[in-house]
Amino acid sequence: MASDPSPNPTTAIRRTTDRLRGGFARARTSRWAKVALALGVLGLVAIFAFWFAVIRDLPSVDTLRTYEPPLPTNVRGIDGAPIHSYARERRVELSYAEYPPLLVKAFLAAEDKSFFEHHGVDFPGLAGAVVDYATKLGTGKRAKGGSTITQQVAKNLLIGNAYSPSRKLREAVLAYKIEDTLTKQQILELYLNQIALGRNAFGVEAASHAYFDKELDQLDLAQMAYLAILPKGPSNYDPVRNAERAMIRRNYVLNRMLDNGFITRAQHDQANAEPLGAVMRRTPKFESVGGYFVEEVRRQLMAKFGESAKDGPYSVYSGGLWVRTSFDTRLQDLAQQALRDGLVRFDSGRGWNGPIRHVEIEDDNWLQPLLNSNIALDYRDWVAAIVTGKDGNAWSLGFRTGKTGTLPRYAAQMAVRGKGGNAFGAIKTGDIIAVAPDGGNFSLRAIPKVSGAFVVEEPASGRVLAMQGGFDDRLQAFNRATQAMRQPGSTIKPIVYSAALDNGMTPASIIVDGPFCVYQGARLGQKCFRNFGNSRGAGPHTMRWGIEQSRNLMTVRTAAQTGMPKVVATIKKMGVGDYAPYLSYALGAGETTVGRMVNAYSILANNGKGGPPSLIDFVQDRHGKVIWPENWRACDRCNAPDWDGKPMPRPITRQRQVLDAMTAYQMVHITEGVVQRGTAVTLRDLDRPMFGKTGTNNGPTDVWFVGGTPQFVGGLYIGFDTPKNLGGAAQGGTLAAPIFKQFAVKAYEDLPKLPFRAPAGIRMVRIDRASGRPVYGTWPNTDDPKPAVIWEAFKPESEPRRAARRAGPAPAAAATVAVKKAEAPRDSDFLQRQGGIY
């Protein structure tokens, strides 16, 4: 029987293929297949749309690893103590370990109780936020939160605060990524350091100072709970304007902490019973020190590094710089007090100058306008007050602390300057005035109309130690120490005579104090100069006498003999100013600042070495690297407690030789005579080596004094901002020098009496003080401020030849005539007593 033939493999494959094709064809035409295909396409579109709208341009989470928040610039004084901070966002960075555990729990209770359980997103909370958003859509109201702490970090640091559903989605995606990148502790550290909490405080440490004036670890539970409510809206829970609302919200947080087991019932009850206890909004402690000095530092930093983050990584308000300055708190306080006292003395009895400022008061809300004015006083017991209303014979006052007081009619009877009438009748509601306590009431005070500036500098380094640019920087920000261009008057004369000493004259050169006129051309005609007070010339005298007595005629004659081009060249290289070669500039007609004049005198005191004055020693970035000045080097062993047997460390100095060292010493030696017997004789009883020069310009509109010791040099002027006559009795020796004396009495209190050291080559010669001729056999009487014989400093080969004194022994020499020749004092004895000077 024959068998069936075996099947053809090709035929079997073809049949299977046909069946599959039929199945696909039927599937393509089926309803469910079309639905599945549509859903797949929609899914792909949705994924693409989600990527395009949410994920496409998400910032990298890795930036959070190296995130550096905007930090204020912190300024320190000469001793390293903090004195100021420049901040638009006050922030203090702490590590997570530095935050009190109870404070962390307060923020978790208020913001995200399940923070340590979720992975960036709290889905129940997010669902509630979605529902809230849907119900408020189109109402103009904003939906409530739903964000975890991780989402808030993503929002604040990476994507911004735009109100939209897409932002919420981006926030959620980033929160997941952040949780994969950082630990929970790192996330909390970022959050607690950067969250905005009102009063310009960013981060919890800054808020602790802003609201309670305490370090974070000094807060109690109630205060921690209050800070934890602020992320929801600091203005909503302001402790002054919304105290009741803030109390309710704080107690809610305490309840949440109790419910979550973070605190005990006893802790809860104790904290719940406490008042808010917040302090009034005020200027931080670090922003109330330094005044004009720190503002000048800020100006220099802004010029170097810029203002905000867009200007670079080291900007003043974002870079977190650490700035070491030469600010000496003690000297600043003394200079500030002396200048203020001098201004008040001059201005007293001249009447009331009107209110400091006038503001509008609405609905009896006087505190906020007063705080917003940023006006405050710290002179003696004076305080700024706002006039809130009148009650019969008294004005009602309000103060920054929220307290009130009364200004009776009898306590405001001073005349109104330039208008007549008394101050009580001129005061208006809304005036901000100066008052001082008077029994149970207050008395009116007048802010001086006259102003001025005071600068103190260390000659050896050129560092500015103190700077007061007016009565109070919170009343007038204009810094007269560096910005007010004034005529220095006779304080320019030591520099003029320095040019003469550089060009062949000596301290003993004879100059005629007599009429001096110059022809200035056909247009200007002849100019004749005069001495101060129009006094007649006194005939021939030494250069020293001319400087000590501040004789104008001798100065212009010397300048003409030296050549004004040489004189103004010396003035320029001393940093005072760039003037045309006119003789009037030799008498101080050119404008300059008190800061420049003090620096020029510091160069004289430092044997001619110097440069531009400095307020900033060095600047460090937030990590401690010195970024300015360039190529800065620390002085190793400069702060060692005792000598270690090695060579003495030498601080690096950037000073250069500006003026011949011997010329500088000669001028210092001459101007010591100004203090001993000249126009600054009021300083003589300070009883220490001191040089200086007074100045009084035309009018007089300004009076000056500049001078000091080897330790530091100070200078000041007094004058109206719009120059006008100070009165005929006003002189540098009677107004400016006493202010410096008040400063110097305490400033030099514990300092050694150091002589000015002469440079190599200087020759000390005994001369007759009146004639300038050398003497023999007669010695200076150091106890007499006006001895007939003095030691004078000469350059080599410039001193007069020694000869017998023809006029007979000076009175001071009477006792020495009887001394045996072997016992007579020698020049070398004098030199050794002066510390070995040449």
UniProtKB/TrEMBL annotation:
TM helices/strands, residue ranges: 35-54
Keywords associated with the record: Antibiotic resistance, Carboxypeptidase, Cell inner membrane, Cell membrane, Cell shape, Cell wall biogenesis/degradation, Glycosyltransferase, Hydrolase, Membrane, Multifunctional enzyme, Peptidoglycan synthesis, Protease, Signal-anchor, Transferase, Transmembrane, Transmembrane helix
The protein's name in its UniProt record: Penicillin-binding protein 1A
Subcellular location: Cell inner membrane
Family membership noted in the UniProt record: In the N-terminal section; belongs to the glycosyltransferase 51 family. In the C-terminal section; belongs to the transpeptidase family.
Enzyme Commission no: 2.4.99.28, 3.4.16.4
Domain Penicillin-binding protein OB-like, first and last residues per copy: 352-450
InterPro entries the UniProt entry points to: Beta-lactam/transpept-like, Glyco_trans_51, Glycosyltr_51/Transpeptidase, Lysozyme-like_dom_sf, PBP_transglycosylase, PCB_OB, PCN-bd_Tpept
Pathway info: Cell wall biogenesis; peptidoglycan biosynthesis; Glycan biosynthesis
Species per Swiss-Prot/TrEMBL record: Sphingomonas aurantiaca
Residue intervals of the Penicillin-binding protein transpeptidase domain: 452-743
Ranges for domain Glycosyl transferase family: 80-257
Signal peptide (residue range): none
GO MF annotation terms: penicillin binding; peptidoglycan glycosyltransferase activity; serine-type D-Ala-D-Ala carboxypeptidase activity
Gene Ontology CC terms: outer membrane-bounded periplasmic space; plasma membrane
Extent of Basic and acidic residues compositional bias: 820-830
Main localisation: membrane
Residue ranges, annotated region (Disordered): 817-838
GO biological process terms on file: cell wall organization; peptidoglycan biosynthetic process; proteolysis; regulation of cell shape; response to antibiotic
Catalysed reaction, written as an equation: [GlcNAc-(1->4)-Mur2Ac(oyl-L-Ala-gamma-D-Glu-L-Lys-D-Ala-D-Ala)](n)-di-trans,octa-cis-undecaprenyl diphosphate + beta-D-GlcNAc-(1->4)-Mur2Ac(oyl-L-Ala-gamma-D-Glu-L-Lys-D-Ala-D-Ala)-di-trans,octa-cis-undecaprenyl diphosphate = [GlcNAc-(1->4)-Mur2Ac(oyl-L-Ala-gamma-D-Glu-L-Lys-D-Ala-D-Ala)](n+1)-di-trans,octa-cis-undecaprenyl diphosphate + di-trans,octa-cis-undecaprenyl diphosphate + H(+); Preferential cleavage: (Ac)2-L-Lys-D-Ala-|-D-Ala. Also transpeptidation of peptidyl-alanyl moieties that are N-acyl substituents of D-alanine
